[in-house]
Specification:
Elements: E1 7-11, H1 15-24, E2 30-35, E3 51-52, H2 62-78, E4 83-84, E5 88-94, H3 102-112, E6 116-118, H4 121-124, E7 132-138, E8 141-143, H5 145-158, E9 162-165, E10 169-174, E11 182-186, E12 191-194, E13 196-199, H6 205-211, E14 220-230, E15 238-243, E16 248-253, E17 258-263, E18 268-273, H7 288-298, E19 306-317, H8 321-324, E20 330-332, E21 340-344, H9 351-363
Parallel strand pairs: 1-2, 1-13, 2-9, 5-15, 13-21
Antiparallel strand pairs: 3-8, 4-8, 5-7, 6-7, 10-11, 11-12, 14-17, 14-18, 14-19, 15-16, 16-17, 20-21
Helix pairs in contact: 1-5, 1-9
Length: 368
């Protein structure tokens, strides 16, 4: 049992939970990381498009774009081994049903300082000119989740964080001794205590809150499918995103030596809100055929993409993000219990905003 003094428990061993644990260990005596899966970074931290954002994706949320620009270089410096840069990235602007025109997208990138240039003619020729207004070459990179996991294992070891895998948390409650600590009960009857507890379970945030009798957070969920595909030449060393509406994106997926294909219309299979019953997982069958047929209208070469597999995960969305496509962090301090914190990021570079919040808490004397 961890003493409730200078200590913390982090529930959730994804990228955010592991990063929070490492950061807390830099100024707390003892940090325990609990992950219910047999391995860290096994769920949403792995099953995503592996995109290191540089602002381009968010023309409808300048604040999100600015934060991505600021955090882009920080991620490259913090995790250089995990960065994958051996491909070219292109953003295409659709002629119809796009929330931005090519001129607006160019002006947006200039405003946030995101470098872009017209794509080479050979690349532009790959797109259907009747459906695509312009194609830009940009600086956007990918990450390898396997290497990221290795690096975080090393950081956790160096920080002397106590990592416990296959440890499923049942609930969080006030410690019975009245000393101000919190008690985390695991399935199977074991319990650990600490001064602070961080709920970093992403799609499981409200599941833990409900089990603990605490107020739910208004969140939306999507049962999402990423199709893993083999891309035909000459697109094998490229990533493509069509802006900005019901279109597709295809990014290198380094852990599998493939590409991940997503589609705004077809990737979400079901959606539900906090408190509603979730659909079965995975919801299947795959919608790869729908994804690739629509994507090939814009980029005809994709019609020869070969389907390999699908990654299924629950995507968690703040309600405000459905309005302006923003991706702010969720950071709720003392949520229902003193010392209980709920943390969520919508994209991987959000982690630096979370660490900034931790430093602010420490400066106010709320983490010690």
């Amino acid at each position: 049992m961890a003493a409730p003094g200078s200590s913390a428990i982090v529930v959730g061993g994804g990228f955010f939970g592991a990063s929070v644990a490492v950061h807390l260990a830099s100024f707390l005596d003892r940090v325990v990381l609990l992950e219910r899966e047999p391995e860290l970074l096994a769920r949403a931290s792995f099953a995503n498009q592996a995109r290191i954002h540089n602002g381009y994706h968010y023309p409808r949320s300048v604040l999100t774009a600015h934060r991505s620009r600021l955090n882009f270089d920080r991620f490259l410096q913090a995790y250089p081994r995990a960065v994958v840069s051996d491909f070219s990235k292109y953003y295409a602007v659709a002629r119809r049903f796009s929330a931005v025109t090519a001129a607006q997208f160019r002006a947006f990138c200039e405003r946030i300082g995101a470098p872009l240039s017209p794509a080479p003619r050979a690349v532009i020729s790959l797109f259907d000119p009747d459906l695509v207004e312009a194609v830009f070459e940009v600086r956007e990179l990918a990450f390898d989740a396997r290497v990221l996991r290795e690096d975080l294992h090393g950081a956790l070891d160096a920080a002397r964080v106590e990592v416990r895998r296959s440890a499923e948390v049942a609930r969080v409650l006030q410690a019975p001794d009245g000393g101000g600590g919190l008690r985390v009960e695991l399935r199977g009857g074991e319990a650990v205590e600490a001064r602070s507890v961080f709920n970093c379970t992403y799609a499981g945030l409200n599941e833990l809150l409900s089990a603990s009798g605490l107020p739910l957070i208004p969140l939306r969920y999507e049962a999402a499918e990423l199709a893993l595909v083999q891309i035909p030449p000459p697109l094998q060393r490229a990533g493509v995103t069509v802006m900005c509406g019901p279109f597709f994106s295809v990014m290198p997926f380094p852990p599998r030596g493939a590409h991940a294909l997503s589609h705004v219309r077809y990737t979400p299979h079901y959606a539900w809100s906090a408190g509603e019953r979730a659909p079965p997982r995975p919801p299947g069958p795959s919608r790869f055929t729908h994804m690739v047929k629509d994507a090939a209208r814009f980029l005809p070469g994709l019609q020869d993409a070969r389907y390999l597999d699908s990654l299924w995960e629950t995507k968690t969305i703040l309600p405000s993000s459905e309005v302006d496509d923003s991706r702010p962090i969720l950071f709720k301090a003392h949520h229902g219990l003193r010392g209980f914190f709920c943390v969520m990021g919508g994209k991987i570079d959000n982690v630096f905003d979370v660490l900034q919040e931790l430093d602010a808490l420490r400066a106010r004397g709320e983490l010690s």
